[in-house]
Structure formats: C-alpha cells, structure tokens
C-alpha cells in the first residue's frame, strides 16, 4: 500500500497516469517513486544521508532508475552517473558543482541542502513533484530564491507541482490553483486569484483575514477564532470548522457537502459566503 500502518483508505481512488495508486502492486509503486513522482521534504538535513556525499546521493537515484529514466542520457557507466549528478547540481544553480558533489550535508548551508534535495528529486525528470513545506527554516531571501527556482524548473520541464504549505503568501505568489484544507478535510478549491478575491468557505475567509500582505495594517489582522478540534474525538461534527464558525447550523454538524473536484471554484460548506463571491 501507499500509506503508513496508522492510515486506512476507506474509499475512493488516487490515479496517476492511468494507474490507481491504491491498487497498484508495491513493485510498480517503487518504480514510480523517484522516477515519475518525486518529493522534496521540509527538513533537508534530516532527509539527506549525513554520511554520504551529496553527489553520491544523487547517483543513488540515477542508478535505481537507470533503465527507466526519461531524461535518459544513456549514462549507465559510473562516470556517466557522476556527470549527470554534477549536472543535476548545476541545474539547481549550485556554484562549483564538481566540488560540491563531494561535500557532505553538514558542510553545506540550509539553503544549499535544500537545493541538493531539489536536485535529487528532479534527477530523473519526474512528471509530478510534491514539495512539502520546502522553505521551512530558510531565511526570507533564501526562501524566495528556492521558490523561484522550483517555479522556473517546473515551467521549463512541464512538470506538475503539488506545493504543500501553511504560507498563504507563498501559495498566492507561486500556485495556479489552491486547495484549502482544515483538520484533514479539503474545504475549498479555486484558481489562486479567484480564491483571494472571493473566498467561499468561512475558514478560507478567516485565513485570508489573518494573513499579512504588503498593504496590510497590523491592527486590521483578525485571528481565526477557537482551536483546531481534537481529531481523536468520537463525536466530531461532520464539518470540523462548525464549532468555530459563526455561520454554522445543525446541518453542518450532521453532514458535509462533497467538494466537486471538477468545478472551477468548489466549496464544501452548507453556508458559503455567496455575498463575497458575487461582490
């Protein structure tokens, strides 16, 4: 399966390239991971192997998928892997990649380690990149540089990118479409500009109201009321935001509307902010 022992998939499907990932055999999933679907983790120093040189870690991925790599320079010889690892570092704008390939993670800065993680993820030119909080722990300048790099590479390689973040500002700047999640539920989905201009879900509106922008006056920021619900509770309401929402009714506690994934702007709410949508 694709999930950890603590997770259970009760229904639905997860389709990639015509393959249902929930039903695919483990051998097929192993071929997809790192080749067709890659991931960047939020803590590169934890994700990188501390006792292997970074160039070797890129070569590990190239060797694992040598037969299947879409980029396919035909470099199956050790020297070919080395050259491709160095090129992968060059592609993510690491200066002096020949020397950096022989460095250990502890010898590199946080921003440099994140670029190495990106190089590893993109080494086999995947069709889908999952970036999980890829700028956590980086200073603002380095964060901007990493995000600009990811955006440019995704566009250049025509690679779909799923960016997971708590930073609405980053999402607004770099994402074409945003899916808002609350306590494990997808509650709203829309093109980025439309979402910020006319949010439909009360939680989305609260998030936007609590997010500073260049033009925000600090005293105008309003926090989201209440606390996240304890997901271990047996009596959770159907809408997990209902206990914090001024628009909630009995219906919100009994059932949750389905989010229509095919709609341009979809919301899972019985009482959406329709006034804002038509303003």
Report what the structure shows.
- The chain has 279 residues and is an alpha/beta fold.
- The chain has 12 helices and 8 strands.
- It has helices spanning 26-32, 44-47, 54-64, 78-91, 97-100, 110-122, 140-157, 168-174, 192-197, 202-209, 250-254, 274-277; strands at residues 15-16, 19-20, 37-40, 128-132, 160-164, 177-182, 185-191, 266-267.
- Strands 3-4-5 form a 3-stranded parallel beta sheet, with helices on one face. A 3-stranded antiparallel beta sheet has the order 6-7-8. A two-stranded antiparallel sheet has the order 1-2.
Question: Tags for this entry?
Answer:
alpha/beta; 36% helix
Subunit arrangement of the protein = single chain
> Which residue ranges are poorly predicted, with pLDDT under 50 across at least 5 consecutive positions?
67-75
Sketch the topology as an H/E string, one letter per element. Answer: EEHEHHHHHEHEHEEHHHEH
**What global shape is seen?**
globular
Structural class: alpha/beta
What distance separates the N and C termini? 46 Å
For the biggest sheet, the summary is: 3 strands, parallel
Number of helices: 12
The total of beta strands comes to: 8
- The level of helicity is 25-40%
> What is the percentage of strand-forming residues?
5-15%
| Spatial ordering of strands, largest sheet | 3-4-5
Estimate the mean pLDDT confidence. Answer: 88
In angstroms, what is the radius of gyration? 21 Å
């Amino acid at each position: 399966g694709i999930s950890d022992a603590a997770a259970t998939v009760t229904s639905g499907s997860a389709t990639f390239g015509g393959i249902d990932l929930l039903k695919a055999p483990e051998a097929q999933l192993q071929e997809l991971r790192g080749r067709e679907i890659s991931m960047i983790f939020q803590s590169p120093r934890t994700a990188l192997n501390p006792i292997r040189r970074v160039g070797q870690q890129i070569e590990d991925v190239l060797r694992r998928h040598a037969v299947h790599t879409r980029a396919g320079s035909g470099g199956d010889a050790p020297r070919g892997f080395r050259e491709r690892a160095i090129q992968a570092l060059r592609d993510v704008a690491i200066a002096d990649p020949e020397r950096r390939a022989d460095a250990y993670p502890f010898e590199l800065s946080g921003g440099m380690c994140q670029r190495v993680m990106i190089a590893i993820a993109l080494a086999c030119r995947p069709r889908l990149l999952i970036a999980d909080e890829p700028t956590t722990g980086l200073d603002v300048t380095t964060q901007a540089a990493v995000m600009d790099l990811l955006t440019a590479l995704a566009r250049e390689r025509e690679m779909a990118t799923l960016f997971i973040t708590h930073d609405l500002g980053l999402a607004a700047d770099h994402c074409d479409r945003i899916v808002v999640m609350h306590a494990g539920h997808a509650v709203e989905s829309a093109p980025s500009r439309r979402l910020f201009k006319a949010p439909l879900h009360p939680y989305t509106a609260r998030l936007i109201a609590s997010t500073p922008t260049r033009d925000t006056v600090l005293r105008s920021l309003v926090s989201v009321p209440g606390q996240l619900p304890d997901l271990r509770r047996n009596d959770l309401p159907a809408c997990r935001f209902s206990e914090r929402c001024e628009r909630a009714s009995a219906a919100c506690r009994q059932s949750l509307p389905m989010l229509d994934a095919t709609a341009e702007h979809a919301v899972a709410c019985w009482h959406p902010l329709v006034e804002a949508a038509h303003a």
